[in-house]
Amino acid sequence: MRLDDYDAILCDLDGCLISGNVVLPGARALLRRAGVRLTILSNNSTDTPETLSARLAEMGLEVPPGRIVLAGTAAIDHLAARPGARVRLFASPALRVYAAAAGLVEERGAPTHVLLAKDLSYGYAELQETIALLSRGARLVVANPDVSYPGPDGLPVPETGSCLAAILSVLPGLDHDVVGKPEPGLYRSALARYPVATRVLAIGDNPRTDAAGARRLGLDFALVGAEAARWRSVADFLAASDALAEGPAGAVRRG
């Protein structure tokens, strides 16, 4: 599996390129070597492509908004495309601004939908409100099913899926929509940016979302990070790719 063999590279964010405000080993090298072939494809449900691009720039990682696809904004786009949708948003301030710009109408009393994204203010009162709205017939849309992602100290950070688990503990069997990985929609949105790509590589650190989503679309996949048996970081993957490119006795392989 050599990086140079691929026309398009879809890379996860947390656990691959960054952890909190820490840039992970190999991140800068991957962005430099992949160039315009790389799109960040993330279950991030806090940022917009613009806010994430700005945050990454502060960390020395240059990725324009046009090469960022995120579950949170994709979920809002999904709802904004539904005529007459009235939505109770549990989301970050950045996603609320994005939703308003997309023309999405927020409704707290009798919404048609409830959007669950990563909301740091989501607590018991919000859980109770969510249960009540869903029990009255609102449809639940979840930005992503991840229960956690690795923090910079190695400890798990709760994600949107942990709140979903709390909801389902009260309303087991609740029918709901998931927008982010492993669902194929987010992948297809990213792949639409590569109309002539024939070989696509996905890189991620979560076998339950990143790997499962890539497998559904038949994409080559590289698992990196704490759960990976071969590559503990993007740097390890790049080193293995270089070794394959050089071949035996340092001879550079072609084709």
TrEMBL record:
Keywords: Hydrolase. InterPro entries: HAD-like_sf, HAD-SF_hydro_IA, HAD-SF_hydro_IIA, HAD_sf. The keyword Lipid metabolism does not apply. GO terms for molecular function: hydrolase activity. Pfam families: Hydrolase_6, Hydrolase_like. This is HAD-IA family hydrolase. It comes from Pseudodonghicola flavimaris. The lineage of its organism: Bacteria, Pseudomonadati, Pseudomonadota, Alphaproteobacteria, Rhodobacterales.
